[in-house]
Queue: 3 jobs
Job 1
Amino acid sequence: MSGIKEETGLLGRLERYGESDAYPFHMPGHKRQIKWGITSFPNPFSVDITEIEGFDNLHRPEGILRRAMERAAGIYGSEKTYFMVNGSTGGILSAVCGLTEPGDTILMARNCHKAAYHAVMLNQLRPVYVYPKRIPGWDIQGGVSAAEVERLLYLHQEEGVSAAENKGQGGAIRAVFITSPTYDGIVSDIRGIAEAAHRYRIPLIVDEAHGAHFPFGESFPESALECGADVVIQSLHKTLPSLTQTAVLHVKGNLADAGEIERYLSIFQTSSPSYVFLASIQNCMEFMDGRGREEMCDFAQQLGRWMKRAGSLHMLRVLTDEECCLQKGEARDPSKILVSPGRSGLTGTQLSEILRERFHLEAEMACRGYVLLMTSLMDSREGLERLWEALCAIDRKEPGNDEKMGSAGITARLNRGLERTGQTRLSDAWRAKKERIFYKDACGRISGSFITVYPPGIPMAVPGERITVEMAELISESRELGLTVEGVSEDGKVEVAL
């Protein structure tokens, strides 16, 4: 905590942390900065209201909120845009449940966020998985192949029966769900995937939680909405100057039933939405459509200069576009900076600890193989320079023994070896009777719950999948590195189905 003293209350500790010199290379995208007037909010208590006359109702917008969402739709180029105060999670749940019926089949990338699996469980869907490629040398997840999506759609599409005629009957795939960009910033060929899905009249849902900034800068990848996706969910707070929990959901085209999605939004969003959050969303939209576009251009130039210098590091390595081996339609988000310990002899978590304790720089995520640093247009030149000077200081150290470090990153290892069909339907395993046993003794058993390293929140095991030796090894490694493993209790027990 960079020398922050323990406080008796959360607010006191937050205030002390905010007054420190700790610099955030993590979400939220506003980076605790107040500049250009974008985050100069009044006292939040003075504007924290409920649905009173003149302020509209998020669940039945007819006035000021409806106009704000229509304005946002115009900015992003969607046909309908919905404000969300429960983060992208509420949007993912609403999109999946709104476009499928219980018993349907959904084609989804295996590296999806846990919220997508929760939607599968709630709607009792049968998932068919498509697996992302790996980036050699870094062992992180790359893009999802459009050709593989098309192959799986063909295999699971019943001859002569359209998806629309097969609702609730299993078999034919009813929706495609892809995460792009990944947590590490890799963008899939969404245009190719959308074209494949649309040939079968199937809607494409894209979890673009980490890509809300894409439409505002020419140096950044194209937005999924521009590439033909039917439903796109974005977390404004991750990469733009908006408060945590703020997000938007876009609908475009005639394959996605906006009315059904809207119906589920009223279920998965709170009935008491924060007007402070809603004002933050609108404020963010207006800023990004004006001054924000200029600032994104300046931000991209800063990142370009920073990356040029990164090539001079000797011990540490910074991920480049060239190393990603990008294929047609794929891209990399330059705002995500991945640093490998390389020949330094450190692990990624040790590198992160040094950045925190010695240089007061807080990373978004660290695992054994690398550190993820998130940047946004709200980062200052001074902040980026502090990061560069810190990495240079660490890089000057003599190389150590890196034999035990390994290069495997968390995100790629989460689905390594999972190319198999779950032995039990996800929803059935979730509801089955269970017992709790030590995770090392659970190898070969059917998982009765989600086991998830957080962040990034991608389940290594979902209910119905068999727990493998490699999963147990990853649990051990993650716990040793101090990472959070949801679904594993403090005494190391997991739930397995009986």
Job 2
Amino acid sequence: MFKVLTLNKISPSGLEHFNRKTYTYGSELENPDAIMVRSASMHDMDFADNTLAIARAGAGVNNIPIDKCSEKGIVVFNTPGANANAVKELVMCALFLTSRKIIPAIDFCKTLKGEGEEVGKLVEKGKSAFAGPEIHGKKLGVIGLGAIGILVANCAKSLGMEVYGYDPFLSVDAAWNLSRSIKHASSLQDIFSNCDYISVHVPLNSETKDLINAASIASMKDGIRILNFSRGELVNSEDVLEALSTGKVAAYATDFPTDDLIGASGVIAIPHLGASTPESEDNCARMAVFELIDYLENGSIRNSVNLPDVELLRTTACRVCVIHKNIPNTLNQITSPFTNANINIDNMVNRSKKDYAYTILDTEGDIDNSIIETIRGINGVLRVRVIK
């Protein structure tokens, strides 16, 4: 029986896929085999020795101690693309909101309550203060062409915008989904100097923190409108506020409000609603559950942030899964005990991702426990699991 700890409310649309004969799940379980989480912080958690995996029902994993998990041989999954459409729709909403001054206009209308028959005249008199440009024919720069960035780019193109896309790490699968009419930007400067709107869709790391700052803003067109629905720290809020005060930036929309941004002129601060749709929560939960099931039952890894994706069709009765450091000669050391015991390895796959690697070996018949203990004793081996 596998025990799955849920740290947040997880959609029943996902949990219902756990076979209750082999799985139990809940928020009060001890020593879980796996953990499902959304936004709860796990940085101060102590993990049981038998905890094999963590599945984040969402894309961002800042709430999970990735390095700590990797050292303990815990696979961390996320659900890329499951909430992409929800975020895309909010980004498109923000695109219009930054252009047409709709929110200030609505606030203005509220001040007219009680004016009776004068409302019509006051509306006509005051509406000129809220004029804004159409997006049709304008240039949108999309930085990061992952699941969300591609949807934003394609949607904006369908609305008549001229779209520039920049992503030096664009995958083949992503490229297939990108409209051929999207212009390829060879550098960030292509985006900064050409576009009327910029939407940021990259992960947060040491290289992307403050990607939008005083220097990059200075190279943008006057009156630029910036959208950030990826991570708050990608944009230096102090620099954006300064640029808003001078008119260099016409508007800034973000899904990550901070105290200095809330109420600032030209800022549209949304309370992290990007993935807050029932459809998105269902999609993320289902994907996370399927990732856990496939790993717990078959050893397959898909959409892991700390280990390589590895899948191998089951052809034998016994499967040995080894998580280890990406150290030279480790694979030979893992296979040697089988060779010494005259046990044939019917099928095998090994993949690495930065400092870590994962090996699956399929054999017929039972494996003597001494072989498993020998593998566990190899320098750099973090976890060994036998699946029958």
Job 3
Amino acid sequence: MTESEKVSLGDAARGSVLWTAGFHFTRDIVQFGTMLILVRILSIEEYGVMALAQSVVAVISIMSFTGFISQALQVRDPHSIDWQSHFYAGVCINSIAVIITLIIALGLSYTETYRNAALPLAVLTLVFIIDIPASIRQKMTQVNHDWIRYRSLLLIGTLLGSGTALAIAFSGGGVWALVAGPILFGVPAVIDLFFIAKWRASWSIDFQAYKEVIRFGALRSAAGLSGRGRNFLENSWITNQYGFELLGLLNRAQGLVNLTSTRIVSMITESVYPVITRAQPGSEQFKRYAALILRTLTWTIVPLSFLITFLGYLLVMTLYGDKWMKAVELLLPATLAMSIWAIVSTFYVILLANDQVKSSTILDVTSNLLIVGLVIFFVPLGVQTYLWSLFLFGAVWLIFVVVRCSRLGAVSLPGSASAIFPALVAAAFGATPVMYMLSPYDPVAAITGALTFTILYFASLRLLFSDQLKELLNILPFSDVLLRIAFLSSKPT
């Protein structure tokens, strides 16, 4: 790769991160405001019903067109992508997904425990229909690094879904307020594809050329199916053991984590994935990108995990209200479990970007199959017990994945260590005095503790790991400003 190509990829990555951060910030405000209203109107049981219905759709969607169209991001030359073949395959694949989902919904309607989720699940099949043209348009803009258009379409979809959800909730629509968002999210992309870009389907497919897409899609479907299947088993088993109310409480506890730490993972990987796949697989440039991605994610996720748990009582009280206070008991183990698995999943994504689809799939499927055992054994012992077992297993599995990825040449051991070790050390320096001195149940003390931890955390990174911090800040948007704030020289390391 030439120096000019490296600079071009760097600029593309910065542009993607900038637009992605802006989009996520705006979307989070919209969704956050919508959530504040909905949790006060809808019941805990309605959230549980939607969680179960979404878990079914999530499982089916892994075998849907979404897994196949993602192969477009793997292509180093975007001009060689056959969008017509993708559309034809999408219609065939998602038609099957619709039929399967409707059959499952019909089956649920005959059960005593799950019948309330049957009709919402049936209506959610519209997601598969809208997703065909929507995914094509979204991937078109991604592979062309048209970040403004891509993010604009997603933001308009978010606004459309949130506005409709609020209208339904205020009119007494109950769970249908939660159903509307996923269905309407892709509509702006559909309109942009057919009416603005004026793209038309020729209803043709090159089966010979599509073999690589099928192989990629099959492997990704296997990985996704194991993950979503595990999530479905988790939700259904918790519902079976404890009812929809506890599932709703867990859903809201996980929702706080999704609003913060795990959202960082999706934002960063979504931003840089279309860029990093242009780097030569296995090259030093790719390994450097991978190490910086891991460092960005880990150095953000680790402190956020502490802040969520320390501020948990205040957050639940302020955001959700009194009826959700039991979710506080689940917040610590849920945060730790979700955060460590978010870091693990980043290694899977790096392997995928390095064109090691099979290795990524094997690791993903294996971990999810092992987690199924944890679900079956530990959920009857209590949801908190299960979440702690999930966290401990994640810590062990992370060590294995780090070593495995190093041997496969996707990221070096020093690169992984520079991401994980400094974050843990800095978090320990920041958390130790706060936990012993301040109470998370006193609002003033909780806020004071959060600010104290944040200052100590970043001060520790600055004093103990200044070279790694400088290298990271140099590749971020507005790097000069960030370096000055950290009292670091703007010269490259």
